[in-house]
Design a protein that fits this description.
heterodimer, A: alpha/beta, 7-stranded mixed sheet, 4-stranded antiparallel sheet, B: alpha/beta, 11 strands, transport (chain B), ATP binding (chain B)
């Protein structure tokens, strides 16, 4: 295998706050290939957004300690100067945020905001940039793009705003697109439209996409590979099929069991994960999931609370858990029976 | 639903919000038709789910039932008593029987009051002194919702989102209500916490026999929680049925499209075909004539534009399964969430 397009190695992002050191990301590694979508799943505070802000270099450097390696197409990003990053952002890599209304400027027309990025990176004239903005709006499926280009974000509906954001992110044909919960605030029918749009655009341009979400259903729809995060660490990774069909970590299993489905039995109560996500100020020792894990006592010697399980990845598949494969086979057996009919 | 009088009977319920404009004299220039002629019943101890996309009027419906808003038209009957335009005094005894759980567990609890004060608030207002004192009752309630009874003098910020939602549930239970309107009670919570709260609500519903109007946009959660489900679109109910009928055999094209758009965490061998609805929900200020869904419907004809379809038991429906459509989906169509076989529908 050649070198991956984006490679993140042992990333650590720590913030020092008044209350102490927050270890938002604590040793995370992954690769993304061109034309592929990596889905990152995790709950609030699992470090998924922090990871992606560090790829884009959007953390305040004075208050953030970052360690590890982020290499995009042969270029190291963590140590890169602000000027280098500025040239890359919006150009080679760009981002779609969750809340489109909050991420668009209310004082500028949508067209101006799309054109701005284009002009900055290509040095195009105002007229060229405007034409490009219209073309982008058309490409993301906004009706009457030549009229809409002069409208303000408040005149757009939620789904259209998200489309405009996508247009802005794609205006320079980026090779890496980071989508941070881009559909969470949208209705399901609009969510379906946006996901189809992203898939179409990816096919057309071969963009590498990192798709952050808390919704395993969305992952099943859009991702090729999946990375499950918990408490700033990766607990499980693999292809979408591997992770969703045969989850290998109690947390992933717990997430799936706590979600009702459209065709499951309604008489069986859901199986929630007890407790709540950990505080990253004072995270649990050992495996960060052990206080909520149903199987922690199955591991002898209290290993779960003392030692951090290693994530051994073989051909892109692996999970960080102290349970042995045989134990998992026994303990997870019910899963297949209850979930897939 | 064997009882003769339902707990709650809603007929023709309408709420229009006036839009003021003009200068120098501001007058009403239009109306947001948030809710437009709803008919439904809720039986004692039953859970009715209200689903639909944002702007379909489901939250407004919740607020009308609890009479936090006054309807523009129609009738709300609670246990045989007309409360449509009831005044403060008339409503007082009923308010204690109809309680509400809100979406945002951060905004719906007063940060300056202790949990004990928050939960005993409804008892204070209604001057209820339970046996053994209010504090004892608060402790009981905390125990019911799965919180430590010793925490009654803590403040909301000391609790996590899921725990706060439990406090909201405890407050709603304080007056032993007969009906709880839960407006998106779990959508602000993390996935692993959602299930905890859903299970709690289910326990409450079953053990205390409380009826629920469960408002949510998550179709899977509604299916899990509600015995009967109503699908709303642009201020109207387009389909209402027992959950098995609705999810297995959706008759309204919108219901089918909505179900097919729900992403499911399963990997099928063949990619699941989805019905793509084009565009957005039209504005409720100027809703389409006839059937309100027709602008996004792949089956719409002339008739749909001129004639609003009534909410009736269309041919092939089981009793209690009502659909408002001129051209209901037929039984030959494969149940929506699995596969849609007509590619025309996707276009």
């Amino acid at each position: 295998m050649s070198t991956p397009f984006l490679s993140v190695r042992d990333l650590r992002v720590h913030f020092s706050t008044e209350d102490g050191l927050v270890k938002a990301v604590d040793g995370l590694s992954f690769d993304v290939e061109k034309g592929k979508t990596l889905g990152i799943v995790g709950e609030s505070g699992s470090g998924k957004s922090v990871t992606n802000l560090s790829i884009l270099g959007l953390h305040n450097r004075e208050r953030t300690t970052m360690d590890g390696e982020i290499i995009l197409d042969g270029q190291e990003l963590l140590t890169a100067s602000e000027r280098t990053l500025e040239k890359l952002r919006g150009n080679k890599m760009s981002m779609i945020f969750q809340d489109a209304l909050a991420s668009l400027s209310p004082y500028h027309t949508v067209g101006v905001q799309i054109a701005e990025t284009y002009r900055k990176h290509t040095g195009a004239s105002k007229r060229e940039a405007r034409a490009r903005a219209v073309e982008m709006l058309r490409r993301v499926g906004i009706p009457q793009p030549d009229v809409r280009v002069d409208e303000y974000p408040h005149q757009f509906s939620g789904g259209m705003r998200q489309r405009a954001m996508i247009a802005m992110a794609l205006v320079c044909d980026p090779e890496l697109l980071i989508a941070d919960e881009p559909t969470t605030a949208l209705d399901v029918t609009v969510q379906a439209q946006i996901m189809d749009l992203l898939k179409d655009l990816q096919q057309e341009f071969g963009t590498a996409i990192i798709f952050i979400t808390h919704d395993l259903g969305v992952i099943a729809d859009i991702a090729d590979d999946v990375l499950v995060m918990y408490g700033g660490r990766c607990v499980e990774r693999g292809t979408k099929k591997e992770v969703l069909r045969s989850p290998d970590h109690p947390y992933t299993l717990g997430l799936m069991n706590s979600m009702p489905t459209l065709n499951g039995s309604v008489d069986v109560p859901l199986t929630p994960i007890p407790g709540s996500p950990p505080s990253l100020l004072n995270p649990p020792s050992g495996c960060r999931f052990h206080p909520r894990c149903a199987f922690a006592e199955k591991v002898s010697g209290g290993l779960c609370s003392s030692d951090r399980p290693t994530l051994e990845v073989v051909e892109g598949r692996g999970s960080a858990c102290h349970l042995t494969q045989e134990q998992k086979q026994d303990l997870f057996a019910d899963f297949a029976a209850t979930r897939h009919n | 639903m064997s009882n003769t009088t339902p707990l709650l009977d809603v007929s023709g319920l309408t709420k229009h919000f006036p839009i003021k404009g003009g200068f120098p004299i501001r007058r009403t220039v239009g109306a947001v038709q948030a809710v437009d002629g709803l008919d439904f019943q809720v039986a004692e101890g039953e859970s009715l789910g209200l689903v639909g996309e944002s702007g379909c009027g489901k939250s407004t419906t919740g607020r009308l039932i609890t009479r936090l808003m006054e309807p523009t038209g129609g009738k709300i009957t609670y246990r045989g008593q007309d409360i449509t335009h009831a005044g403060r005094k008339e409503l007082a005894p009923i308010r204690s029987e109809i309680q509400m759980i809100f979406q945002d567990p951060y905004a719906s609890l007063n940060p300056r009051q202790t949990v004990g004060k928050i939960i005993s608030g409804p008892m204070e207002i209604n001057d209820i002194n339970p046996e053994g004192g209010r504090e004892k009752r608060v402790r009981e309630l905390l125990e019911i919702v799965g919180l430590n009874p010793e925490h009654f003098n803590r403040f909301p910020h000391e609790f996590s989102g899921g725990q706060r939602q439990r406090i909201g549930v405890a407050r709603a239970l304080a007056l032993q209500p007969k009906l709880i309107v839960a407006d998106e009670p779990v959508s602000a919570l993390d996935v692993s916490i959602q299930a905890q709260v859903v299970n709690l609500l289910q326990k409450v519903q079953r053990e205390l026999g409380i009826a629920f109007v469960f408002i949510a946009h998550d179709l899977a959660i509604v299916r899990h929680f509600s015995q009967r489900v109503a699908v709303m679109y642009l201020g109207k109910i387009v389909e209402i049925a027992d959950r098995e009928d609705l999810y297995e055999n959706p008759r309204h094209p919108y219901t089918r499209a909505l179900l097919s758009a729900v992403p499911e965490a399963t990997v099928d061998e063949e990619p699941r075909e989805r019905i793509r609805l084009a565009g957005d929900v039209p504005s409720p200020i100027n809703p389409p004539s006839g059937c309100r869904f027709r602008t996004r419907c792949w089956k719409a004809t002339e008739k749909c534009a001129t004639e609003a379809p009534p909410l009736v038991q269309v041919e092939g429906n089981k009793p209690g399964h009502l659909t408002a459509c001129h051209y209901p989906e037929t039984t030959e169509t494969v149940p929506a969430p699995r596969l849609s076989k007509d590619p025309e529908a996707a276009a």
